[in-house]
Amino acid sequence: MWESALVLLVWVLLLVGCWSAIFRKAGYSAWWGLVGIMPIIPFLWLAYAEWPVRRQLQGYRAETPQGSEDDAYALLDEAGRLERQNKYEEALATYERVAAQRPDAAVGNDARVARDALRERLQREAAWQEDE
């Protein structure tokens, strides 16, 4: 009886280990490998989720002269995500990069507008905190 429990435990650990490696390579935390215990969930997750490693690649492509405007907009979306996560310094740096890389394009103008709006918001919040 305990032999079959041991075999099951080894099988589950192997399954979780494999899924952990896959999730880690996709840019997620290795802890997502625990989802591998439920058979269909990891497949659905990896098929329909936006992979962090893909966002990072689009950011790198946007910084090169060969990068498309779509890549620059993907980097702009990444900056917005950083802003929503309250990572304001990283968001400002990303807006700056897009504005510097595409100064004459519409995406560069969008980045400058978003950067200025974020700066203004941060200044208002700082002034509000000083008043308290």
Topology diagram in text:
Elements: H1 2-25, H2 41-48, H3 52-63, H4 69-84, H5 88-101, H6 106-131
Helix pairs in contact: 3-4, 4-5, 4-6, 5-6
Describe this structure in words.
It is a single chain. This protein has 132 residues and is mainly α. The protein has two domains: 2-37; 52-131. The chain has helices spanning 2-25, 41-48, 52-63, 69-84, 88-101, 106-131. The longest helix has 26 residues, at 106-131. The radius of gyration is 21 Å and the shape is elongated.
Largest sheet: none
The SSE string, one letter per element, is HHHHHH
Give the terminus-to-terminus CA distance: 67 Å
Mean pLDDT reading: 80
Which percent range describes the beta-strand content?
under 5%
Count all strands and give the number: 0
Number of distinct helices: 6
Tell me the radius of gyration: 21 Å
Classify the helix fraction into a percent range. Answer: over 70%
Domains counted in the coordinates: how many? 2
Structural class: mainly alpha
Low-confidence stretches: none
The dominant shape is: elongated
